[in-house]
Amino acid sequence: MSAPSTGGASRDGYGSALLKLASDPRVVVLEADLGKSTKSCLFRAEHPERTVSMGIAEQNMMLVSAGMASSGKIPFASTFAIFTERAFEQVRNGIARPGLVVHICGSHGGIHTGTDGSSAQSIEDLGIYRTIPNMTVLHPCDDLSAEELTIQLLNHDNPSYTRTARNKVPRVYTEDNVSEIKIGKGNVIKEGNDVAIIACGVMVNEAKIAAQKLSEEGINACIVDMHTIKPLDGDLIQELARQCGCIVTVEDHSVIGGLGGGVAEYLSRNIPTPLEMVGVNDRFGESGDTSDLMSHLNIDYNAIVSASHAAIKRK
Amino acid sequence: MLVKYQPMYWTIGVIALQTINSQFQRQVFKWGAIISLSEGQLMEIARKCRIDIVEMVHKAGAGHPGGSLSAIDFIVGLYGTEFRFDAKNPNWEDRDRFIMSKGHASPAVYSMLHQLDIITKSDIDSFRTLGSTCQGHVDMKWTEGVDFSAGSLGMGLSFGLGCAIAARMDSSERNIWVMIGDGETQEGQIWEAAMATDFHKIGNLNVVIDRNRIQNDDFMDVQMEIGDIGAKFQSFGWKVIEIDGHNMQEITNAIGEASSDQTEPYAIVAHTIKGKGVSFMENNPSFHGKAPSDEELVIALEELS
């Protein structure tokens, strides 16, 4: 996918949000030698006295963050999504279990990243963090929403994990309407009655392209930006199920355990509804150009169109 | 119960001292400095704690007596001298912190908090039961006076480092104390924290290593002996003091030195005996995580009386 001329990657929104949060003296930033990538470097440049370099030591970073949170600070700790997973147990036992409010940001999540290959492609982060009690899990779709959601974390009572993406995508939001989004509430960005496409992250943009293709066939798809994976907006899912009668979930993540898994759990327990999932189908990624990979792994807009057809047929 | 020694001006001090210089404030909040506990008195407190430890583990039918008995003398020495806290207000924000990283030795912490009247006898009697204040491993969510949720080894030193960095950012002189086990040093994260402490020039963080040479399955010699722990911490930039972890004079001297020097982090290697004070538990790997039987409890209490 070629980079758009305007807009930014969600990681840019995280970085600009940290700068806006700096007026609160409780805010501190921790890095694990990837500040230039996660964009915490923006905060470091302005506030080095409140930026803590932890070196390439993610486990230590998580518990140092926890200790700082227990001492009145509001830590924002970032590294690549995949390397937060190295410290999963530290997040589970050291942060979430005692309910210490640490905000973790995993950038470069999913396969929509560079060409480093499967070792750098986190396709399970949303799933594993979703299983931890007390954790809020976010995955914004563009730079503006990433900034807005990160700023909202300042007054959030739970620890959180936010996945951001490396690559620029066209903006879904504008500076005028982005403040309407709220943690915990999915956002309908296009109304429709034939199929509800619930997407997160960079796939929201892909869903918009798919909806355009579907409309050319006379299919009116509803599109939702489900930026909050946990707590999942069950009320909205229920409404969509009633309104459209079938649902397609779309994520740059394994089909196991993430957005699709969460929606499936909710539907099967509350309002059984035909569901198709677009996501990485229980396999690892590989090196490659992003658009080639999305096509190869069957998670591009063509896959969303096909899944929508399948879902509608099952109504 | 030690609470009777607490002077009435303790609580008054919390209010009054906000206007007095911080040096004096440190003195007043030091429990031991106020009541001037002698080594003999501290050992007597430790003896009472040992009784609590074996009784609560026996009653629960589970727990970790060995590492609690090896650790308790140091804990009493710390709370009884330099540790700056307020028993009437355990959540006082500017208190020193005690991070019990070897969280399975929770009975040692609970016995100390009981002696300070921060938790009650019924709390420790409910150890490990549903809804108890005294969870199996120390947990800051459940127990007043506990500064860390432990249970997974290797994490406490990093947590303490975070507390120490925050204290420095706040220009506070609070000291952060972390206790780890010697087996716990097998966790790589300990050395991540040791390295970061030196790099960030943190001087208000001290670690005590309970060097009892036994871990869960067996002696460290069999499982994974680390060798000269002091030399290793020294090579990471820490100042090292080696002590007999059951000699109260050596304990309080080391605590005094480390507390008064906030220019360097101290690693105190406390050479201890696992199960110290109960003959059949001493240096016995099987009492790492096993409760005494009814008969064994009787013997243990006789030896501790």
What is the CATH architecture term of chain B?
A: 3-Layer(aba) Sandwich
CATH topology of chain B: Rossmann fold
Strand percentage of chain B: 5-15%
The helix fraction of chain B, in percent, is 40-55%
- Structural domain tally of chain B: 1
- Classified in CATH, the superfamily of chain B is Thiamin diphosphate (ThDP)-binding fold, Pyr/PP domains
Structural class based on helices, strands and sheet pairing of chain A: alpha/beta
Task: Estimate the strand proportion of chain A.
Answer: 15-25%
Give the biggest sheet of chain B: 5 strands, parallel
Q: Radius of gyration of chain A in whole Å, from Cα?
A: 19 Å
Q: What would CATH call the class of chain B?
A: Alpha Beta
Number of strands of chain A: 12
Q: In the CATH hierarchy, what is the superfamily of the largest domain in chain A?
A: Thiamin diphosphate (ThDP)-binding fold, Pyr/PP domains
**Cα separation of the termini of chain B:** 16 Å
What is the H-and-E element order of chain A?
HEHHEHEHHEHEHEEEHEEHEHEHH
CATH fold annotation of the largest domain in chain A: Rossmann fold
State the end-to-end CA separation of chain A. Answer: 33 Å
Residue-averaged pLDDT of chain B: 90
Strand order of the largest sheet of chain A: 2-1-3-4-6-5-10
Question: How would you describe this structure to a colleague?
Answer:
The complex is a heterodimer of chains A (315) and B (305). Chain A is α/β, with parallel strands linked by helices and 315 residues long. Chain A has two domains: 10-163, Thiamin diphosphate (ThDP)-binding fold, Pyr/PP domains (Rossmann fold), CATH 3.40.50.970; 184-313, Rossmann fold, CATH 3.40.50. Chain A contains 13 helices and twelve strands. In chain A, the strands form two sheets. In chain A, strands 2-1-3-4-6-5-10 form a seven-stranded mixed β-sheet, with helices on both faces. In chain A, strands 7-9-8-11-12 form a five-stranded mixed β-sheet, with helices on both faces. In chain A, helix 1 (10-21) packs parallel to helix 8 (143-152), helix 9 (203-216) crosses helix 13 (301-313) and helix 10 (234-244) crosses helix 11. The longest helix of chain A is centred in the middle third of the chain and has 14 residues, at 203-216. Chain A is globular and about 55 Å long. The two termini of chain A are 33 Å apart. The relative contact order of chain A is 0.13. Chain B is α/β, with parallel strands linked by helices. Chain B has one domain: Thiamin diphosphate (ThDP)-binding fold, Pyr/PP domains (Rossmann fold). Chain B is 44% helix and 10% strand. Chain B contains 13 helices and five strands. A five-stranded parallel β-sheet of chain B has the order 1-2-3-5-4, with helices on both faces. The longest helix of chain B is centred in the N-terminal third of the chain and has 22 residues, at 39-60. The two termini of chain B are 16 Å apart. Mean pLDDT of chain B is 90; it is low at 1-28. Classes of the chains: A alpha/beta (315), B alpha/beta (305).
